[in-house]
Amino acid sequence: MARIYIPAPLRAYANDERAVDIEGATVEEALAGLVRKHPAIEKHLFGETGKLRQFVNIYRNEEDIRYLDREKTALDPADEISIVPSVAGGTGGDACLPSALSPKEITRYGRHLTLPEFGMAGQRKLKASSVLVVGAGGLGSPLALYLAAAGVGKIGLADYDVVDESNLQRQILYGTKDVGRKKLEAARETIRDANPFVEVETFDAALTSENALDIFSGFDLVADGTDNFPTRYLVNDACVMLGIPNAYASVFRFEGQASVFGAPDGPCYRCLYEEPPPPGLVPSCAEGGVLGVLPGLAGVVQAAEAIKMLTGVGEPLVGRLLLIDALGMRFRELRVRRNPACPVCGDHPSQTELIDYQAFCGIPTQPNGHAMTQQASLPEITVRELKDRIDQGNRPFILDVRKPQEYDIANLGGTLIPLDELPDRLDELADRKQEDIVVHCRSGGRSSQAVQLMRAHGFEHASNLKGGVLAWSDEIDPSLPKY
Ligand SMILES: [Zn+2]
Question: What does the DSSP assignment read for 408-436?
Answer without folding.
Answer: HH---S-EE--GGGHHHHGGGGGGGTTS-
